[in-house]
Structure formats: structure tokens, C-alpha cells
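Example record

One chain of 108 residues, shown exactly as stored in the release files.
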Amino acid sequence: MPFDPSVETPIPLGQVSKLSWLPRRRRGRKIHTSTVFRWVQVGLRGIRLEAIRVGGTRCTSEAALRRFFERLSAADPLCGGSEPAVRSPAAAARGHRRAEAELKRAGV
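Predicted C-alpha cells for this chain:
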């Protein structure tokens, strides 16, 4: 679900780490540009950052970043969220294998 550039100001993904309101990471480092691209392409815990392409540049907006962080917080029980977390495909496969092993042990 891309944001509406007529309402929100597009920010190139490479410039997101320069936003002053974003918290620093370990050892005071800024969020790496590849992290922002990964949030758009793959997502984090099943939640993707909204983005659009303006010419050859992928862009997001500050409002899209806030929505992304709010959705992440809503899915995190440690942040008071109640939505179930989305499992990665690898975690789902491990769960299936575990369940199949339990069924096999039970003789089902």
C-alpha cells in the first residue's frame, strides 16, 4: 500500500537515515541504508514499509515510517500490542516439523 505523494512528501530511501527523529542504533550509529531498503522489499516480522518509485528512485515518507513503526509496535507484545506476530517462512517450517514429530511420537 504505497503512500500518496500529493499528501506526503517523498523522501529517497537513501536519505531516511539522516532524519533527526530516528533513534540511533548500537554504538550511536545511524540506521543503515540497506536496512531501510530491506524494510521495503522484505519487511520486518511480516510488516513492510510503504514506498513508491519516483523515476529511478525509491521513496517513502515520514508518515509512512511512523505507520510502519506503529504497526511493528502493535504486533509486539512487549510494547503492549495485541496483534499476533507474523512468523517467517523458516519459523513456520520449523513449527510444522515440530508438530509432525509430536504427532509421529503420539502414533497419529
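Notes: The longest strand covers residues 57-60.
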